[in-house]
């Protein structure tokens, strides 16, 4: 497979990436291990958008791209979602208190700073769109499915004990 011409490898990767919409798309990552040629052709498709949606992702991201300028050149979009601390049902009825806000600010700062430090080591001409958001596992947007949100909304109507996203309004 290593002796295939580069344009044929590109065509194969195109076919792997463009399966019919009703079929799951195969992960291209295993094909990057076939050879150096395959790695170059697949990484251009693997890395354009990076989603860092867990606490340890910025560190893993740093390990994967830190000294690899080719991978850095492939990346055009980074979406960092910072996971803040969870809160209990009782806390849903009140705005975030100062101590919670301080802890969440610390978490947000440490994780964001980690990613930004990594990006400062990249070539100056690199253009990347960076989106940073934050949420807790307790946020309504993180609920599994509409049924759970509807249950919470019904409880709010009855008890007025859930601020939903407004919990952070004063943060």
Topology diagram in text:
Elements (H helix, E strand, L loop, with lengths): L5 H12 L18 H11 L2 E4 L4 H9 L3 H6 L2 E7 L14 H23 L8 E7 L10 H14 L12
Parallel strand pairs: 1-2, 2-3
Helix pairs in contact: 1-2, 3-5
Explain this structure.
It is a single chain. The chain is built from 6 helices and 3 strands. By secondary structure, it is mainly alpha-helical. The protein has 2 domains: 1-47, no CATH class; 48-144, no CATH class. Strands 1-2-3 form a 3-stranded parallel beta sheet, covered by helices on one side. The protein is elongated. This is F-box domain-containing protein. It comes from Penicillium antarcticum.
Classify the helix fraction into a percent range: 40-55%
Principal-axes geometry comes out as elongated
Q: What portion of the residues fall into strands of 2 or more residues?
A: 5-15%
Task: Give the biggest sheet.
Answer: 3 strands, parallel
Q: How far do the termini sit from each other? A: 56 Å
What is the N-to-C succession of helices and strands?
Answer: HHEHHEHEH
Total number of beta strands: 3
* Radius of gyration over C-alpha positions, nearest whole angstrom: 21 Å
Q: Average pLDDT across residues?
A: 78
Strands ordered across the widest β-sheet: 1-2-3
Please count the helical segments: 6
The low-confidence runs, each spanning 5 or more residues with pLDDT under 50, are none
**Structural class estimated from helices and strands:** mainly alpha
- Tally of separate domains: 2
């Amino acid at each position: 497979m290593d002796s295939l011409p580069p344009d044929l490898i590109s065509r194969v990767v195109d076919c792997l990436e463009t399966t019919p919409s009703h079929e799951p798309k195969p992960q291209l990552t295993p094909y990057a291990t076939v050879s150096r040629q395959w790695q170059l052709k697949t990484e251009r498709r693997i890395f354009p958008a990076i989603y860092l949606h867990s606490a340890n992702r910025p560190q893993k991201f740093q390990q994967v791209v830190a000294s690899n300028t080719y991978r850095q050149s492939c990346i055009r979009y980074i979406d960092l979602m910072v996971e803040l601390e969870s809160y209990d049902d009782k806390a849903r009825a009140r705005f975030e208190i100062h101590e919670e806000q301080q802890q969440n600010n610390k978490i947000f700062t440490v994780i964001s700073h980690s990613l930004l430090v990594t990006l400062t080591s990249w070539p100056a001409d690199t253009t990347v769109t960076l989106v940073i958001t934050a949420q807790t596992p307790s946020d309504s947007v993180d609920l599994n499915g509409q049924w759970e949100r509807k249950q919470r909304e019904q409880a709010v109507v009855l008890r007025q004990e859930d601020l939903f996203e407004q919990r952070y309004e004063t943060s």
